[in-house]
UniProtKB/TrEMBL annotation:
<feature type="binding site">
    <location>
        <begin position="12"/>
        <end position="18"/>
    </location>
    <ligand>
        <name>NAD(+)</name>
    </ligand>
</feature>
<keyword id="KW-0816">Tricarboxylic acid cycle</keyword>
<dbReference type="InterPro" id="IPR010945">
    <property type="entry name" value="Malate_DH_type2"/>
</dbReference>
<feature type="binding site">
    <location>
        <position position="132"/>
    </location>
    <ligand>
        <name>substrate</name>
    </ligand>
</feature>
<dbReference type="InterPro" id="IPR015955">
    <property type="entry name" value="Lactate_DH/Glyco_Ohase_4_C"/>
</dbReference>
<feature type="binding site">
    <location>
        <position position="93"/>
    </location>
    <ligand>
        <name>substrate</name>
    </ligand>
</feature>
<comment type="similarity">
    <text>Belongs to the LDH/MDH superfamily. MDH type 2 family.</text>
</comment>
<dbReference type="InterPro" id="IPR022383">
    <property type="entry name" value="Lactate/malate_DH_C"/>
</dbReference>
<dbReference type="GO" id="GO:0030060">
    <property type="term" value="F:L-malate dehydrogenase (NAD+) activity"/>
</dbReference>
<feature type="binding site">
    <location>
        <position position="106"/>
    </location>
    <ligand>
        <name>NAD(+)</name>
    </ligand>
</feature>
<keyword id="KW-0560">Oxidoreductase</keyword>
<dbReference type="InterPro" id="IPR001252">
    <property type="entry name" value="Malate_DH_AS"/>
</dbReference>
<dbReference type="InterPro" id="IPR001557">
    <property type="entry name" value="L-lactate/malate_DH"/>
</dbReference>
<feature type="binding site">
    <location>
        <position position="43"/>
    </location>
    <ligand>
        <name>NAD(+)</name>
    </ligand>
</feature>
<keyword id="KW-0520">NAD</keyword>
<feature type="domain" description="Lactate/malate dehydrogenase C-terminal">
    <location>
        <begin position="157"/>
        <end position="325"/>
    </location>
</feature>
<protein>
    <recommendedName>
        <fullName>Malate dehydrogenase</fullName>
        <ecNumber>1.1.1.37</ecNumber>
    </recommendedName>
</protein>
Length: 332
């Protein structure tokens, strides 16, 4: 029997991530090849005409799974009945700007969209915040939508996770799908900590630690970390625009694994509400290693954290605490 369609909201749908993301959703890349979808696309009035153009293209592409398109600049209409909300709308970082610079503009959007989701989304709606500062926007959304369970509000660090996999596969000239269990800890910013201490590589003679195969601790602790931390800025420098296709694809990975589960023995990175695991202060949206099952994520417990990693985990937590204070000062 055909499944009922799932309603997926994409805010900022007329923007560049939106343009890459909506066809992926309509093709089943986010929710699977047998899951019909109804796309809700929200943007602001100045982008209304462009948004209609995207809707026309979706119709023209004749996606078999796409059962309807709501293209709107009305936040209530956009949020009504949605089962999944991918929050991309906001102002992107431009060359030379730090995430803090975009804070003032973006946190107020997330405060107002929190109430629309709280009042009009379907019960148990899953929320993924992509727009920067992603962790802090997600936190503001959570705080101003108190009836949405905290576990339903997440932010995107899967792009950073995928970037880390990509760097290791390039370094060793191996398939990216043979690398697993890297971790992105903390903020989706240059203080994030890409950690390979538990990462492994599939080889013909079984799984081997990344450290054993790379055999270059200097590269792993300097260039690798820096490249992943600074990749967003490097893309902006090269494209004069922030990453879009990789962000859209990683957003699909995030939701797909959350809904359908992570493979046995592997984890992914997601920005989730801290419960104090690994001594990360509760009350922050922080990227942890998680496994997903039955539509719920759980933080992977019991991983050893050496002294070097401890400092990195604390540093990015400190930045998030500062961002939280700054966000509240912007809203007051
Ligand atoms: P963009 O400027 O191309 O698109 C943003 C869209 O949001 C625009 O169409 C704009 O009109 C719309 N918008 C602005 N305010 C809105 C509101 N109140 N409601 C609905 N829509 C609104 O930007 P982009 O390149 O698509 O990037 C979007 C966001 O994603 C940026 O904040 C960017 O920094 C962030 N980003 C995050 C990641 C990540 O990994 N977390 C990666 C790449 C980009
Ligand atoms: C990215 O990681 O590509 C984006 O978050 C862009 C940015 O602001 O760095």
């Amino acid at each position: 029997m055909a499944k009922d369609p799932v309603r997926v909201l994409v805010t900022g749908a007329a923007g560049q991530i939106g343009y890459a993301l909506v066809p992926m959703i309509a093709r089943g890349i986010m929710l699977g090849p047998d899951q019909p979808v109804i796309l809700h696309m929200l943007d602001i009035p100045p982008a209304g005409e462009a948004l209609n153009g995207v809707k026309m293209e979706l119709v023209d592409a004749a996606f078999p799974l796409l059962k309807g398109v709501v293209a709107t600049t009305d936040v209530v209409e956009g949020c009504s009945g949605v089962n999944i909300a991918v929050m991309v709308g906001g102002f992107p970082r431009k060359e030379g700007m730090e995430r803090k610079d975009v804070m003032t503009k973006n946190v107020s959007i997330y405060k107002s969209q929190a109430s629309a989701l709280e009042n009009h989304a379907a019960p148990n709606c899953k929320v993924l915040v992509v727009a920067n500062p992603a962790n802090t926007n997600a936190l503001i959304l959570k705080e101003y939508a108190p009836s949405i369970p905290a576990k339903n509000i997440t932010c995107l660090t899967r792009l950073d996770h995928n970037r880390a996999l990509g760097q290791i596969s390039e370094r060793l000239s191996i398939q990216v799908s043979d690398v697993k269990n890297v971790i992105i800890w903390g903020n989706h910013s240059s203080t994030q900590y890409p950690d390979v201490n538990h990462a492994t590589i599939k080889t013909p003679s079984g799984e081997k630690p990344v450290r054993e195969l790379v055999q270059d601790d200097k590269w792993l602790t300097s260039e690798f970390i820096k490249t992943v931390q600074q990749r967003g800025a490097a893309i902006i420098k090269a494209r004069k625009l922030s990453s879009a296709l990789s962000a859209a694809s990683s957003a699909c990975d995030h939701i797909r694994d959350w809904v359908h589960g992570t493979p046995e023995g592997s984890w992914v990175s997601m920005g989730v509400y801290s419960d104090g695991s690994y001594d990360v202060p509760p009350g922050l949206i922080y990227s942890f290693p998680v496994t997903c099952r039955d539509g719920e994520w759980s933080i992977v417990q019991g991983l050893s954290i050496d002294e070097y990693s401890r400092k990195k985990l604390d540093l990015t937590a400190e930045e998030l605490s500062e961002e939280k204070a700054l966000a509240y000062s912007c809203l007051s």
